[in-house]
Amino acid sequence: MKSQMKNKEKPNIGYMRLIIAYITFCLVVLLTVVILLSRYISKNNTAQINNILSLMSEKVNTSFEMMIDYIEEAADLISARKFFSFEDNYEELQQTLVNMPYFSVGLLDMDGNVYGTAGERIDMEKQNFAEAANSTEDIFISEPYRSSVTGSNMISIFAPIYHDEERVGSIFVTYYLETIQNLAYTDILSEETAVFLMNPYSGNFVNCSVIDNQPSGTWSNIRLVKHEIDCFQGYDYDIWLDNMKQNADENIINYRQDNKAYSQAYVHIDGMKNWNLVIRIPITLLSNTMQQYFISIAIGAALLILATLLLAATLYRREHDKTEVLQKLSDADPLTKIMNRRGFHGMMKALFADKAALGRCTFVFLDVDFFKHVNDRYGHEAGDYVLCTVAAVLKETFQDVGIVARVGGDEFNVFVQKPLSVEDMDSMLATVRMKLNGLVLEDGTPLPISFSAGLAVYPRDAKDLKTLIHCADQALYHVKENGRKNHCWYRDLHE
Amino acid sequence: MNVGSIKRKKRKYLCVAFLLCIQSVVSGCGNKTPEQSAAPAYYEYEAVTEIKDGQPDIYVVLKVLTSQYWQDIVAGIRDAGTEAGCNVYVGAAAGESDWESQKFLLEEAEQAGADAVILAPGNSSALSETVSSLHSQGVPVILVDTILNDTDSFDTCYMTDNLQAGELAAEEMIRLLRENGISEDASVSIAIQITSASSQTVIDRLAGFNQYWSANAPKKWIVLDEVKKNDGDSSIAQQNCMDFLESYPDVKGVFGCNNSSTVGFVNGLTQTGRQDVILVGFDYADETARLVESEDWQASVVVQSQYYMGYDGLMEAVEILNGHAPEYKFVDTGTRVINHENYLTYEQSITGDGK
Lengths: 495, 355
Hints:
Chain A has 495 residues and is of the alpha+beta class. Helix content of chain A is 49%, strand content 21%.
């Protein structure tokens, strides 16, 4: 029966191939779109990040210049005074502290005396700031240091002051390190932007904010993390450090660290010898935004394919149901509801098309004895009743082992696909004969029914369908010639 | 809380610790249950000065008590407490980063009505909330050894400026190289090893060393890019030293950022007999001292003033209790270099009290 099912499904293979081809096509298109889009996003993303970095670098640079401008203006103001006194100037400067971004302001004379708090005096002496600041004619910015006054990490900016065109000392302001981070602050990137101070000569860098769970002011050295850095797009960390030393224009680098991709740029700071500001942005930041569009497109495309497939499946199901009904109608005998000649021959042809799958089979040609006599004597209704009964009994007997069909007026065929023995077949035909025995009409009139049958075996009696049918027909003919009510095996005709 | 109750509690915690040890042996160390982490083993408070009524109660929470370094801090605290007339109780965690135990000890100090607290935080940020809570109740908080980075709710901090300590080490290395006649044109490599990259103290020393080196060393004298780690294991540290010497023939100096790294370099140099290599390290361990004392080797170490972290920290607490606001938020207790020229003076100074 399985082969019967298989044969019934065979016409669907073309349809399935079409569906597979469609899905493959869709997947190829989708994959191509994904790859192209990814490349575009990646390229565009890096370009955008680099643009943002450049803008941010400019912003930080401008802000730093403003910090320096402030102290230079203050230095100019003090230098322009006719009567100069460190004490008076210091007192006056303390009044300016309110609402200023810096933490403190003070003065240094050329002997290194500090006009500031006791803590500032300690810090200036410990860090040798006085010597460094007073020896330069320009702005001097200190390295980050832990302040005795605040306990936090600070930087100090110094500018020279003059009296009567003679250098008399320096003015200084101190800033919390977080102030530098704030210079790079933007609403959108506030959480993601990391700002460091970096010295390419020593390899040291200092966090200006909480970065990678390390608090602001944390020092580290590139030697401790360099092995984790994986540059891409042709960048090289050592070259980038060399560029930083030379203040080259190529200030951007892209790299991965801890499975995250970053883009970072340095900004040279005038007055802060050997130190640069480094701004780092995760490349994924923009990717995440683009990724949302990307995912939406992918989901949309997947849904479109799914909807198309569902529609195709529904149409196929409808078509299939319709075809099945039509098939059933064309292949079924309207009176007995079993398969008709057309359907039976079609199926037999399909089975014999693949002989390798066929084993030993038996073909039965069966004829109701004197059926014309039944019609003439009891009427057509009785004749129909006889045919339906014969069909039902044959179906009941052979349905588990073969196919039953009505191929003519009172002619039936049975094709037994299982390799049953002669004895089994004889027994089954005897069962049919027994069930048909004692048939009565509705009014109780007895209806004596018998049948003749000829049997042929594939491949013993015939190697093809046509011959097999012919053999069975010959055996049937022999039974009819010899008194009917019996069955005969084709093989027995020649023994 | 009186001393009697403290001692009773100590017995209770020792019992808990013992039971936990048994349990960890039975169930395996990897299976740490919530019960285990809820009651960690630590050193319960113990009085280190004579307890008298009417004296201020000062509670001290340290990272550990096991090494000489921490014993020196306790000595400073004890001496200052005795001198200033304070009831001083010292407790500590069992591990340098076990801040959970320290949190428990701080809460206990709060419940006991501490007049002031001295803390060596095992984590630079995790204890901020607990410390802020104490400080907001008017309890003076003095930090020693390590500063809290994300709060200013403490009065002052006495610690080593490790950046400057690293710079001092680099200065000494350059001095020794020059003294040994190494030419500025000679190719010189300096090898560095640290305990781990998670210790900010050693990273600061490494950064300080590189900062000074890049600004002051001749251009041909370089610090190797490779920094080896030893996780505090002296045998790994020794192997690291051998690997450095084998891989980099022009290593003329080695720098150990902490005690275990320095001892590892000492053992490695001794084993290979490389007296041509100069050692600069940290802390005056017995093995290191032998090299510093010897005329055959060139070795110097940077030592901290941990005794004064404890002494000055406690004195500052007393000053605050007496109504004087601290002038500084951060006080560098300073470092000094011990070398063949001055080791005798140093050894005499530390005999007995760790000063």
